[in-house]
Amino acid sequence: MGLRANYQYLSDEDLETLKNLDNEEDIFETVEDWNEKAEILLDIDKNWDLLHYMLTGVSASDPIWEDPLSEAVVGVTSIEEIDDFIAYTKKDRVADILKVLEDFDMETALESFALEEGKEAELYPDIWDYDDEEDEIKEDLLDCFERMKDFFIRKFWRRTEMSWLQSIKDLKYLLFLLVPVGIYLVVIGIKKVRLFAKAKMIYEMPVSLIDGSFRLEDGGKYDIWLSGKKYSVSPIYNLDIKLKKIMLQESLYNYIRTFFRTTTSSIKDARVKLYTFDADRGSYNISLTDSVEERENIINNRVIDYKKFSIQIRENVKGLTIFVGSLCIIFGFMAIDVGLIFPLLYKF
What we know:
four-stranded antiparallel beta sheet
């Protein structure tokens, strides 16, 4: 039957098991079982000695220390407790071995090789007197070499895949840290949105009053809101709001109509921002309409139930605040989802 060489990929766990076995019979039984189940396996039959010679110039019985070409055939570390030969190569050496194999030109090396050379080197097996089979021997050896390269390529990518999976395993624990980060963002976002929704109210009057007055203690920007019951017909398009400073009786024309109206709501009520205006410290009159017809409609509560609505003057809160708050809430929940769901859904 002769001495044959085969190679297989082992996981880290299997390698530790192999190193811990101290009985030769157990070692060979274990290795044979692994051979039957191996996903990555290479069998070069009796060509191991000739292959080593072609790669290094010496027989496999004289392996070259720290030579990747030699290690490709005989491995790096041998198990000493047994009579036959078993050796292993750790994953961190695979890339170096693969590189030198890919750089080696076996076809050119075989062109200058003669069977007499193998006989003089006393290589195993003793096939050197079969001159008529020289071409077949070389073809068989070239095939073994190509399959060995393929074996190490597969080992390399398997190592890369396992390293990537290990990184994912480590990453999933880091992903849990996104949960408190997400909670923090959600809390910050809610606070900012609440700041917008709970902007300080300076003055409120029912729409049915039509006219009113209020005082601003500080100059700055303020918002005019229409507030009322949800799902009620709104008078928003029937109002033509005017502001006047009481002492000067001058109209305040520097208010800005809100085209993309911002809204906020509770369970029963809702409000919509109509205008933003700049004003100095002082007292002001507010009039909801100059139209006689519309005033009569409001007074007599025609068409729309005006008693359900009021006009509010509130401190201005920048639209950027609600934008940033909304982003914080969105990204916060995304971080919580990734931190919790991703590690649970993907088992590694």
